[in-house]
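Please predict the structure of the following assembly.
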Amino acid sequence: MTAAAQNSLLAHLDTQPRVRDFLSRAVAADRASHAYLFVGAPGSGKLDAAWALAQALLCENGGCGACDSCVRVARHTHPDVHLYEPESAMGYLIAQVRDLLEDVALAPIRAPRKVYIIDRAEQLRSNSANALLKTLEEPPANTTFILLGTSTDIMLPTIVSRCQCVPFRMLSTAEATDAVARATGLPEPRCRMAVAVAGGPSRAIAFLKSADRQEARRCMLRAVDALLHADEADILLSAKELMGVIHAPLADVKSTQQAVLEQNADYLSRGALKQLEERNKRELSARERSGIMEALASVRALLRDVLMSLEGASDGIVNEDAADIVERLSRSATTAGAVAALEAVSKAEKRIARNITPQLTIEVMLFDIRKALICR
Ligand SMILES: [Zn+2]
């Protein structure tokens, strides 16, 4: 295979061969739909497939992987491919959809067409979904929408009916681990841990590239490890430390945002600048939320290992690099205690989804886990 072909994203969609073949055929025959809905479980590779389709649609050679356009799409810097994600804990904001519709009305910048990727489309609540409907029905020529969702059941039927649905099969943990190992060349146990913490191959690969995110996991595991001998002050301190570690990667995001604001300060109107600032704030809180959810997923994976080990299935543990912690916790906990501790993690996830202060949520969770683990 040539170097160029290796950069062709669609050719490399090997965890979803049917989707790959279907989309390749549509692009090759020049009969791509104007609106797709990619449906599948988290971690099934929908977002990767969306970038791959965008690359194939914008390239003159159907996604060669080598041309300027293909390279830009692969780096997520092509000005005619726009990725939207919900900017509030409650889902998409109507302001986001207005922003999208304003952009749709503009001509493409470099490519002959534009692609809009709308992640977690089930979070388009009725008013924002309705604003989008008309455009989905009669999109401007040379515009492609790719909506991503976990299930058509939880989406507005009017949205679903306007899109061509593309089902994604669910990957087993072993398949996801293999995909991460192939992409990173790292040992299998590390890849399996990353899948458990981050949720799917592409997120796991990003996790393994981020020293900050891995440090947040280690910090979380240390906090749980210390619980057996922790007093109230210790728990409050470790929740605070953890928040510090989760916030560390946000400093980079903030400085990028600041640079963009400064570059635009001269020619954007005051109103537009204010809008950009608001969007920056929402991006920061969304990133904080996802950092916390990942820390919670780390605790969940650890407690599952404790449960496995208590049930005598310790060869199935995911956190091999933290086997000592798993062993210490399983020596003092009971099966019922580990189950109760896992429930404390679920409760914390729900609190974060309801926008309750992260630090408080972590504190409450750590107290609950301690109670569950030392109670006999
Ligand atoms: Zn190309």
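Residues 264 and 273 are 8 Å apart (CA to CA). The longest helix spans residues 270-310.
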